[in-house]
Every structure is written in C-alpha cells, then in structure tokens.
Amino acid sequence: MENRFDVIVVGAGNAGLVAAATTAKNGLNTLLLEKHNLPGGCATSFCRGRFEFEPSLHELASVGTAEHPDTVYKIFDGLGAKIDWRYEHNMFRAIVKGEGGYDVTLKSGVETFCDSMEQAVPGCRDSVHALFDLVQKCNDALAYITKMKGKPNGLTMMLKHGDFMRAASHSVEDVMKALGIPEKARDIICTYWGYLGVPTDELNAMHFLNMLNTYVVDGAAMPYKRSHELSLSLAKVILDSGGQVWYNSEVTKFLYDDAGAVCGVVANGRELYANEVISNVIPHNVFNMSDQKKIPETDLKLANAREFGISVATVYLGMDCTMEELGIDDYTVFVMGDANPRKQYENRDKDGIYIVNCLNKVIPDSSPEGTCTLFFTIPIFGSDLPDDLKPEGYKKYKNEIAYKYIDDYEKLTGISIRPHIEEISVATPVTFARYLGTPEGTIYGYMLSGWDNLLSRISCEKDEYTIPGLSFCGGHAFRGDGYSSAYVTGDTVGKRVVKRAKGAK
Asked: Does the pLDDT value for residue 63 go beyond 60?
C-alpha cells in the first residue's frame, strides 16, 4: 500500500468530506482518514429497532434552489454531488412559558415573515422590514469584499457600504435596538440563537442575520435521505475522482519535517506522508498529537485562549403512530422558559430552551408506515454535566433528561407522547465527545463570541494558524458552527490547497 499522497485529510466530518472531494476532483492524490466505520461525523444516522434516526441536522440554511442556488447548493452541485432537497417553509413555532409568554408561528418569505411579526407584535412591521433591508445591504458589502479578495477600498466601504460598517461589529441586540424593533419582537426573532449556541446580546449581528435571512428567503432545506445522504454523496465523489477513504483509521500523531512543516500523520501505527495535510480535527487535539516544540507559540496561545462551544443533549423518539394521530402540526418548535435569550442561555440546563422536531413533517416517509420520529434537542455545555457520571448515575441522568422534556412538552401542548414511545435513545455531550473526539463534546468547535466572533475570524483566518503544510476546516475553523459553515470551510481550504499544488507544478 502506498504511503505518500498529495493531500491527506484527517476526519470525514462535513468539512473534511468537502475538502477531500475538492482536492480529489481536481486531480490531487487524496487520502481521507476516518476513525469510525462510516463518514459524516454528526452527519450520519443510527438505528434503533425499526427506526433510522437523524442524529443532528434540524434544518439546513444557505441551500437555495436549482433556480436560485445559494452557497451550499453551489458547493454540492459544483462537486457533482447530487442531493434530493426537500423544503420546509414554516420557520418555527416559538412557545414561551409562564406569565407574559407567547405562542407564535412564523413563515418564510420576507413579506410573509414581516406580516407574521406584525400579527404577533402590532406596530413592529416597519422596523422588522428595515432589518431585512439592512441584511441586503450587508450582503452587498460582503459581495464587494469577496470581489476584492478581502482587500476592499476603504473609501468605497465608507461611501457605499456605510450601513455595513456601522453594523458589522455590533451584537444582534444592539443592531435590532438601533432599528427600533420592540423588545417582544426582538425576542421572537432571536429564537434561532439556540442553533448557534451564543446569546444574541453577545452574538455578532452579521453571523445571525445572514442565517436568519437564508431561512426567511428560501426556507429550510433537508436532504430526502437526511444528513447521511450528504455524507455518502461526498464520499462517492472522492472515490469516483480517484481518491481514497480509509475507515477505522484513527490518526494518533501529526508528523513534522526538519523545517517545522507538517508532512504527514500516523494512523493505526503507520506513517503516511503528504505535501498538504487538512485537519477536520480541532486544533487542541492536533497540537496534543504533535511534537510541542514544532508548534509556534502564537498558535498555542490562540488555541488556548479560545472557549469551547456549546454541545447538546438530544432525546430521540420512535413513535408507534403518525404525527397526524399525535396531533403534531409543526416541524420545528422552540420551547423557552423565558422570552429573553440571555436568560434562556443562563438557565439552559434547567428551564432555558429546547427544540422539538418532527422530521415526518418535511419527509413523510422518513420512518416506517404508521409511525413518526421526534427528537428533542437541549443546548448545553459539556461543563454543565454533573461531576459524578459513573455508569449508574449516567443512565439515571439520561432518563431524567428524557422524561423531563417529554413531560414538559406534553403539559404545554396537550399532546400525549409517553404511551406511544416504541424506541427511545438519549445522547449527551459525553456521546458527542465519544463519536466526534471533541473536547467536552462540543459540536461547534470554538465559541463564536467576544473577540473570537465571525467577523474577526474571517478577517484574520489566513493568519490564524501558521504551521506550513497544515490547514484547518470544520466547526472550529474560520466560519464556526453548523453544517453550512463547515461546508464553506471545506470548500475554501480545499480550493486553496489545489491552487497551491497547481502553482507548485
């Protein structure tokens, strides 16, 4: 077996798959290494009884349609990875418990969304519409920055893109307050913070508003065969392009040459060499698998300064009846103990926020006939877990999580779930740490907040980690959390490696 390649990609998560597909499709001898026996990381599936569960994908932003393709659609289409996309045009139902709470449902389409907001909060329509006007102005500015390859003319930015300059460095809350959006309307719009893991008084406005806009304009997308379809389609591109995917191949060491450049890895005790190594593994883990003397001090300081992002606990339910028989009408329901995102965040492991999805609303035949699946997602950090999680305690903890949120949902909605549960499985940050290999089970890499926000990362990403021969992609990289961002980082890094390789030839 060969041991030398043009490119080695470590980790077959979303970003690693795209990066490997990109380099392989462009003629580079590419090897993708994955410690598990199937690709995808979180973008996979698992079976319990007669149910095949979607483990992580709620809904995908930045997809668009064949007629109006957005970033993710273009990436997959450009690679020749054909996906059967399905769409959900209801945004979400948001339920806030207690006195002063609300129960509202929002639909996609800018005008429809603004109408829904006006109905929920009379008098807010104009200010909410101004928010989407701002998003369009910011998108125009970002398009110009991209056109200028990250080096825009300062005078042009001030004269033509002043709104972007004024908004870009502020939080979501700051921007919405400046637009005069009433507090209740702000709280409703900010419901999506749970998908990003950072409360909106801290989250960079550009990050949140871009995601919101893509959902509102095009609706949310799901692959017909769920996230595993995405992973398998990308793996097929790699193989069809002459690349290799080695499963059950855990990388335990990164190799460096005398000049301090990464030149390969050790997987299953075997040394493998490449001109370029792309890591879908978080820098913390890469540096722990490296000779510390080879890592620049600035790289270590940057990694150690960053905070690990949020994880989740998820309860998966296979039901012995249909969603219609249960009386479920919504695909996505956010349930919150308080309307304020900051309070939701601070009470996340008590009565903060949880999300309920019924996949059959978007994909009716995603479970056996006469059944449906539900999954409850609770955003929490790995550090929120009890200190003592010995086997008995861990099982008790998972049972408590499951029935706490099932009971709460039943009480709020009047929908009887318990009698119809045929299969149940519970994942926690411990689960995600085991399958993803991430510290504290983070699903989003490093937290996008404060100094480490999206705008800062994009502005500085070429200078972040300076080890020659090594590139990073994935949730911990320059775009941060979520499927869409992971695909973008894989695409960006893969194309950059191709350009360097072809330049060298």
From this structure: yes
Q: How far apart are CA 140 and CA 133, in angstroms?
A: 11
Nearest to 444, CA basis, from 456, 455, 434, 432: 432
DSSP codes of every residue in 29-55: -EEEE-SSSSS-TTS--EEETTEEE--
SS3 446: strand
The DSSP output letter for 307 is P
Going by DSSP bridges, is the β-strand pair 85-88/220-223 parallel, antiparallel, or unpaired? antiparallel
Could you report the per-residue pLDDT of 446-473, keeping only the tens digit for each? 998 888 887 778 777 777 889 999 999 9
pLDDT by residue (tens digit) across 379-415?
999 999 887 777 778 989 999 999 999 999 999 999 9
Residue with tokens 């009480």: 411
Helix 14-25 and helix 226-240: axis angle, to 10°? 30
Hey, CA dihedral for 181, 184, 188, 190, is it positive or negative?
Answer: positive
Residues 471/475/478/484 CA torsion (nearest 10 deg)? 110
Three-class SS of 116-133: HHHHHCCCCHHHHHHHHH
